[in-house]
Amino acid sequence: MNVPDDLRYSPDHEWARLVDGVVRVGITDYAQDALGDVVYVEVPEVGATVAARDKISEVESTKSVSDIYAPVSGTIMAVNTELADHPELLNEDPYGEGWICDISPSDPSEVDALLDPDGYRALIEE
Fold first, then answer.
1. In contact, 43 and 81? CB cutoff 8 Å
2. Which residues form the domain of 89?
3. Residue 24's domain is classified under what CATH number?
4. Is residue 106 in a domain?
């Protein structure tokens, strides 16, 4: 499984990348592999305020429907509208073009509380 070293991870298999005060969020390679072929992605609403661990998205695959949770608290600043027509981006490029949303964190230190790459690798190897 691909676990990039420049990201933080939630126990629910979301990744978070803090860049210029904004947290970009997506699902991990492990999560997309477990889901199978993604056929639909519901993205959150821009402007919505979320708390860490709130449901922000839903991903439907050929195997199941899974909730996606906010790794940090804050305001949804942008969503990946490409996912409406190309949900397969979650499978093809989970850490790049398959991002789900950007959150302006209300408490940037929440990013530091997420799992580091080694902690996430230990989680998925259990």
1. yes
2. 8-125
3. 2.40.50.100
4. yes
Whether residue 72 lies inside any domain: the answer is yes
The pLDDT tens digits of the residues spanning 43-57 come to 999 999 999 999 999
Q: Is 31 exposed, middle or buried (0-12, 13-18, 19+ CB in 10 A)?
A: buried
Find the helix or strand (DSSP H, E) in which 122 lies.
helix 117-125
Please answer whether residues 9 and 117 qualify as being in contact, where contact means their C-beta atoms are separated by less than 8 angstroms. Answer: yes
pTM > 0.85: yes
Domain-embedded: residue 1: no
* Nearest residue to 42 via CA among 54, 59, 26: 59
- Cα 20 to Cα 10, 43, 54, 105: the distances in Å are 20, 22, 23, 11
